[in-house]
Write a structure and sequence with these properties.
The protein contains 13 helices and eleven strands. With 400 residues, the protein is an alpha+beta fold. Strands 1, 2, 5, 6, 7, 8, 9, 10 and 11 form a nine-stranded mixed β-sheet that branches. A hairpin with a 2-residue loop joins strand 3 and strand 4 (221-225). The chain starts with a helix and ends in a 9-residue tail after the last helix. Residues 28-60 are annotated as: Disordered.
């Protein structure tokens, strides 16, 4: 009897253990299945998010905005540099490109600065409507321009005359619009003409951007770029497509005060900082949003950044620091106001953007630096821009 009881207990314990182990195995199996589902769900979510970003990229750079750039790890610097020379110096100090003017270049610069004396601003032309309407013949602007043109005696300054005439035409167009003689304000084409004339005057060759139209695959999306203008060093004018470009240029019409405020509301989360700081104010408090947002619309900034990115091959290899870093300089023109820009991006970052992988993990960040706007029409600004544009010819390496 005792043996039978012992046997029953043993069987009971064995069945209990077996039941327990089966329960544990079933629980473990359920946990593994739940874990696998979570992993699949996370991967699916990541893939969907990645695909969503890929498909949201516009196939044309003209439709890009700053959000597209941010999704690619590219952002504008928070503060501006006071002068275009600061942007060129950033490049020169690292890779000896765009160095100081030679003695001959200094003479050319001084000659141009002396013969171009007129002083105005695009704000006066576009917004001082009352004065312009009262002076429909342009009396408040044209005498200084005419005086400069009449004093251009040297044939070597013919390009400067072309610049002045283009400025006259632009002002005439705006005067006609304000007086009801024309239906439209100054079009982008006129500002492109002024930029091209100024570039020629400084012996930097402007080439229509359509000649550099190209397509690149960015995150599996074919993206086409066709900038307004590409600037080529004068020494490369016979082989402009075989050598390095100096700058990719994006041009836009002048934004009125109302348009600028709307732009600020759209592209910044907070009101713009009144005390704008630049990069030399190291100890000063600066805005958390890029100060360039206060001047330039997000769509223009997006287009410009994407054109620097897509046309990076146009710069050749000389604007690179070995195989590590690329320097992609550009210019944004808002009417006659000029902003020098510089996209610094690593080669590995570029490779990541051009990869054909279905997933994209951002590991590096790229920055677009920029200068304070300078106006072709304002004497002090123009003198500064003349030096900067002439320096764009110094694309060969110079021994320090």
């Amino acid at each position: 009897m005792q043996a039978e009881a012992s046997s029953d207990i043993s069987v009971s314990i064995s069945e209990s253990d077996s039941s327990y182990f089966l329960t544990q195995l079933e629980s473990a199996s359920k946990r593994r299945r739940r874990t696998k589902r979570r992993i699949r769900s996370a991967r699916s979510s990541e893939s969907d998010s990645s695909n969503k970003t890929m498909h949201s990229l516009s196939p044309s750079t003209s439709d890009w905005d700053v959000d597209f750039l941010k999704s690619l790890g590219i952002s504008y610097n928070e503060v501006y540099h006071p002068s275009p020379m600061d942007i060129l110096n950033m490049i020169y100090e690292d890779i000896d490109i765009f160095g100081p003017l030679t003695d001959d270049q200094k003479l050319d610069m001084e000659r141009l600065q002396e013969c171009l004396t007129f002083n105005s601003s695009i704000a006066e032309v576009m917004e001082d409507e009352a004065n312009i309407v009262q002076n429909a013949d342009g009396d408040i602007f044209f005498p200084d321009l005419e005086n400069d043109i009449e004093n251009l005696s040297s044939s070597s300054l013919q390009r400067a005359e072309d610049f002045l005439v283009k400025v006259q035409l632009m002002i005439s167009c705006q005067v006609a619009f304000l007086n009801g003689l024309a239906e439209n304000e100054v079009p982008v084409d006129m500002f492109v003409n002024i930029l091209e004339a100024f570039s020629n005057m400084c012996h930097i060759l402007p080439v229509p951007g359509s000649a550099f139209k190209c397509k690149k695959i960015i995150r599996n999306v074919p993206v086409t770029s066709s900038p307004h203008v590409v600037l080529i060093p004068w020494k490369n004018r016979l082989i402009p497509f075989a050598e390095e470009a100096a700058c990719i240029v994006t041009v836009a019409q002048v934004q009125k005060e109302k348009q600028i405020k709307l732009s600020q509301e759209k592209w910044t989360n907070t009101a713009p900082t009144k005390d704008v700081k630049h990069s030399s104010d190291c100890q000063s408090e600066v805005s958390h949003e890029p100060t360039i947002f206060e001047k330039v619309h997000g769509n223009i900034l997006g287009r410009h950044g994407s054109e620097l990115l897509i046309n990076e091959h146009s710069y050749g290899s000389i604007l690179s620091k070995g195989r590590i870093l690329k320097y992609l300089p550009g210019i944004i023109c808002i009417g006659t106001e000029v902003i020098f820009t510089l996209l610094k991006i690593t080669s590995s970052h570029l490779s990541q953007l051009k990869t054909k992988s279905k997933t994209f993990r951002q590991q590096t960040e790229a920055t677009i630096y920029y200068s304070e706007p300078k106006d072709f029409l304002w004497k002090v600004d123009r003198d500064n821009l003349i030096e900067a544009f002439i320096r764009l010819n110094n694309i060969c390496q110079i021994n320090k």
